[in-house]
Amino acid sequence: MSKGETNQTHYDKLMEIFTGYNDVYNALYRLKTNDEEKLNAIFKKIKQNLIDSYKIPPDVIINDISELSVYNNRFMKSYLAIAKQIVDEYHLIQVNQITKVFNYLFYKEYNIVLNENGRKFFNDFEDSRYSSDIHEQKTIHRSIMDDDKISLINFTEGEGFDKNQKLKSDLYPYAYKGLSLLELCCYHGSVDCFKFLRTKFQSEITPDCLRYSFLGGNPDIMNECLKVQKPDNECMEYAIISHNIDFVTFLTNEHNIKIDIELCSKYSNLQSFLVYLDQTNDINTCFVYSPNFHISLLLEYFISNGADINAENKYGLTPLHQAAMNNNKETTEILISNGADINAKDKYGLTPLNIASINNNKEIVEILNSNKTK
Questions:
Q1: Domains within the chain, CATH numbers bracketed
Q2: 127 half-sphere exposure, CB direction, 13 A CA radius
Q3: What are 44-81's pLDDT values in tens digits?
Q4: Which positions of the chain have pLDDT values less than 50?
Q5: Roughly what angle, to the nearest 10 degrees, separates helices 19-29 and 36-45?
Q6: Closest CA to 237 of 224, 247, 227, 229
Q7: CB of 335 closer than 8 Å to CB of 320
């Protein structure tokens, strides 16, 4: 799709301004190292490009890391190490929003509980033998994670091997139904194991195989899956999570699947978000989701370009609702100072104050209440 001159200006301007933000989140989502020096470099970029430059609260970044880690769990130890550096640097005692399993793994690794409310799940995770290694050595799942075909063959030749076995684990995304061995290959990009299972057992390529292949990122696996399965909106979600812009544009251009900007904001994929803006020039919809990035400059850019301060998404949520949900003080104040309607209701009848209260965001509740009386 050719870019209109005006639209391209939005994209080019914003990508230039927010290169540092984009680079850091790309580095986190596409992490492929356990090297201490490289992890230190990523931490320094987080400090410089997110916390110092955009005043993004450290606990927000830890929550982001906790959520993204299950999409790239091979490097769970690295994610925990980066989170530990943030905790130490900013003397964090409590992180209100953090995934249950990351909270547990952090406790196991460093004997620190970041969220006391999550402690009640620890016994269940202990019983499930969850660890930051993801899989124990000398298990079939470890063989697949390491793409160790020889080891996998040995397991398949053992007595009682079940080719249809499923793995249920909170260390994987959407794994409540269980992952097949082939789906596990797709998630980890384990191409040798994938080819072996297809050849030996004709293992079925499921829709989830294709979806997980966007996380694993192996082109041979993805191409095999595309021969059998048609991409859907969930593939777009995983492409957005992968922070690989080529995957996103492939689905858009070749399969006519729309970029979901709500998911772009959820997974901090600013580049895909701006590609959507570039393609549609839909400033109001982008403005609604912009508070989720925690970048006040992005918000101000949309306001200066004529965005409706009370624009709504399909759920009736305004930018102020989003800011209240995200406990974003600076964004909340900018929106109110520009005339945002404090009493706006979403389709369920909830105001920004209701949402801030539900999420126990006390500072936002204070700001909204103080402006209510003015």
A1: 31-134 (no CATH), 140-229 (1.25.40.20), 282-374 (1.25.40.20)
A2: 5
A3: 999 999 999 999 999 999 999 999 999 999 999 999 99
A4: 1-7
A5: 140
A6: 247
A7: yes
